[in-house]
Amino acid sequence: MDDCEIREALDRHWVASDADDFEAEHAIYREDAVLDYPQSGERIRGRHRIQSSRAAQPNRKRFEIRRISGGGDLWVTEYVLTYDGRPSYTVSIMEFRDGQVARETQYFCDAFEPGPSRAQWVERMT
Questions:
Q1: Can you tell me the distance from the alpha carbon of 1 to that of 9, in angstroms, rounded to the nearest whole number?
Q2: 47 with 33: CB under 8 angstroms?
Q3: C-alpha dihedral over 80, 74, 56, 21, to 10 degrees?
Q4: pTM of the prediction?
Q5: Is residue 40 a contact partner of residue 107, using CB atoms and an 8 Å limit?
Q6: Which of 42, 77, 100, 113 is the most buried if burial means most Cβ atoms within 10 Å?
Q7: How much of the chain is in helix, strand and coil states, percent to nearest 5?
Q8: How far apart are CA 104 and CA 77, in angstroms?
Q9: In 3D, which of 28, 31, 22 has the Cα closest to residue 6?
Q10: How many other CB atoms are found less than 10 A from the CB of residue 28?
Q11: How far apart are CA 24 and CA 26, in angstroms?
């Protein structure tokens, strides 16, 4: 796959993720894909296990894509993942092999209040 085809596959993946279309969401993964959540120390092996773990998640999820960047076999998506109305700022790093995701690592961060010590140099983002 070239970069345009991978970008289109990523767009389909995130649209399907937001729509809770678990079949379409996981079509991007190889059968032997690995998903890592470093913050919780979890690793899930295999597309079907990844899909099952996400389908079992009871919270209402929404995905707001901020930016997708990458090329070749390495792609990064920055997005806001909202669970039951609570946003989590998220980064997904996907490593492709033969046109499908072989490994994904996801990092999550809750929002926090800005530090007053840097207020004079910053502008607020929405």
A1: 10
A2: yes
A3: 80
A4: 0.91
A5: no
A6: 77
A7: 30, 45, 25
A8: 11
A9: 28
A10: 22
A11: 5
pLDDT digits (tens, 9 = 90+) for 101-120: 999 999 999 888 888 899 88
Number of Cβ within 10 Å of residue 125's Cβ equals 5
Q: For 31-60, what is the HEC assignment?
A: EEEEEEECCCCEEEECHHHHHHHHHCCCCC
Cα 37 from chain centre: 11
Tokens of 117: 């010590």
Half-sphere exposure of 63 (CA within 13 A, CB side): 22
For 3-111, which CATH class?
A: alpha beta
Whether residue 46 has pLDDT greater than 90? yes
Count the Cβ atoms, other than its own, within 10 Å of residue 29. Answer: 22
Domain residue spans of the chain: 3-111
Strand order in the sheet with 42-45: 42-45, 29-37, 100-110, 86-97, 74-83, 61-71
